[in-house]
Amino acid sequence: MPGTRAANPRLRAVLENPRSPRVRAVAKLTKRSARAETGLFLLEGPQAAREVLAYRPETLVELFATPTALEKHADIRDASTDAGIEVVFTTEAVLDAMADTVTPQGIVAVARQSPTSVRDVFASSPRLVAICEEVRDPGNLGTIIRAADAAGADAVVLTGRTVDPYNPKVVRATTGSLFHLPVAVGVDLSTAVERAHAAGVRVVAADVGGGDFLASRDLLAEPTAWLFGNEARGLDEDALVLADLSLRLPIYGAAESLNLATAASVCLYETAFAQRAVA
Questions:
Q1: Checking CA distances to 270, which of 26, 76, 183, 228 falls within 20 to 30 Å?
Q2: Which domain holds residue 64?
Q3: Are residues 167 and 32 in the same domain?
Q4: How many domains, the chain?
Q5: How far apart are the C-alpha atoms of 78 and 131, rounded to whole Å?
Q6: pTM for this structure?
Q7: H helices then E strands: how many in the chain?
Q8: What tens digit of pLDDT does each residue of 118-164 get?
Q9: E strand residue ranges, the chain
Q10: For residue 236, what are the contacts with CB-CB under 8 A and spacing of at least 6?
């Protein structure tokens, strides 16, 4: 009948061959070379499917699910129908062959990469931006994007030396935040800083050799772009000289240091607090 939802998924044909060209093409998206060649990337699990359907349905290319998974997650079935996306049903073996994780949750999707230009990031008069220079760990980058989203940041800018944000591990670590805010990729750091300055945004480097965070806290109420560096080495001297100032978070206990993503979360939230206090 017109207006009704899709028929029982068990009546549809099921993709069964894990070695088929279609399955192999999806599986290749775990590799950066395939993502660069196709402009596509891999999403895994019901949460990722929900987020892309809710925030960026126009980027969704294919949605695969086992009949059992789609019955369990009826909201995804309904959202895909509303978006005009036909679900391709598969066996568990096919999902296993496509997925990057050891135990996929019955749903895999393919979406188009949709980065934002660094020009557009700073043309929108942002007040809070995260710039990542040579962040190499996928989990750290995903968590920084998630923290930036949670803190209400306007964008995240990734330099060319930072891990690919469409790496499946990064995508999973963002828990959907990749679809919530603009992300610029492959940017030259000096260009990012130049754009920030032209937009009236102060660039603050997070660095263990920087000044006292608490003494400079009031500056964070102004438009701020935090610059975060490599997990092991931090920021090179060439990067530090581009920043307007460098700040360090205090360590009150016996910990040797903070994990990069944890430190970035604190910096972003402290800035959000300061900016909202004067709004």
A1: 183
A2: 9-112
A3: no
A4: 2
A5: 37
A6: 0.93
A7: 12, 11
A8: 999 999 999 999 999 999 999 999 999 999 999 999 999 999 999 99
A9: 14-15, 40-44, 60-65, 87-90, 107-112, 128-132, 155-159, 183-187, 202-212, 224-228, 245-248
A10: 229
